[in-house]
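Could you join me in thinking about how sequence relates to backbone shape in a protein? We need material for that, and I hope you will provide a protein of your own picking. Once you have written the record down, we can walk along the chain together:

…
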Amino acid sequence: MAAHPPQDEEPGRRTVADEHVSGDFEFDLSDAGLGVLIVKFTVEDGVLWAQTQAASEPFPLEAVPETEARYSANHPDEGTYEVTFLRDEGGRFARARIVNQTLGIDAYGRRLDSPVVFQTLSERLASRDGLTETRGDLQGTRVAVFFGRGMDRNSAIALGRSFQWMGCDVEIVDSDDITSGRLLQFDVLAFPGGEKDPDPWSELGPEGVENIREFIRGGGGYIGVCFGALFASSSGEFWGQPVHQADRSPLDLFQGSARCGQNDIAPPGSWPLMTDLNVPDHSHPITETLPDRLHVVVYPNGPYLEPFAGAEVAVIATFDITGMPAMVAFEYGEGKVFLSGPHPEIEVDSERDGSGRFDKLADEGSEWPVLLAVVKWMVGEGTALSQPG
């Protein structure tokens, strides 16, 4: 659930939120495959703000004119959310209704008696909830998962869980960690997908971006999923609109274009869905043990990855419907890079990824072995590039 900032006031628009709607509400969205959603509502300066476990920070909602206690939030892919607070017999806003026609959501929720404290990503990783099986292939390998404004918690926690499953030591890092040089303590840096308009550009700044490049040039690995692939590319588009602008300098690792939006697979408003991938050949170390076909969960209009002419890039997998590159790998200096438009980290039929957001979908197996092959290629099986210090 995400939103855009309130627009300029229109005639008759009621912008002041009723302060009595503040509180924590629980919604059962399992019919839409989204599990249980807890939303913290607060009112500040007359504006209603909402925060979920999947959002890195609160976002504002707009009041719906000529209604009592009804608010809306728009998302370019997920459509419009409407939240209506309902009074009980005593006049207290004790229940709420959330509707999103695009995602098939129409559910009532209840106000919780006690405030809910959201676990941080680091706390969730440390709990290892649902992760009952682990491997020892990559013990001693240290992986940093970046999390910043607009990044998707579901993608981030699932990436972290997949690395823990491999036997890696995993830590959540932020822009301060990267600008301060902490990447030197890790072997691999992973960038997850984005919930709504991720903004690592302003967070990292030129120094942080250059530190990432230096980390990879010096022998580090970079894994970028969905938005993480877009951020790493020389140019990017979202449904034909440029993403990289003067104040949004890309990492420029991938000499190619990351183009989000494929009508033949997922027209706007059609996601979440799953998409088949084909593995064109098995000569690359990543693809040696992969099947010819992958059924990869979650394709929320992530990018296809089109290399520039002459770029030395291995296409790991292609979209079955369009034939466009879905996963690519290449070397960058002494380091290695893997980018994916779909989300191989999400396990829709298992709790071990820590995310229940897409559990309504059907899977035909895990894609974590793809990520395992990626990390092995980056660091050498069972051998870390650097030693913790």
Notes: The longest strand covers residues 36-44. Residues 1-14, 382-389 have pLDDT under 50 and may be disordered. Residues 200-217 form the longest helix (18 residues). The chain is about 15% helix and 30% strand.
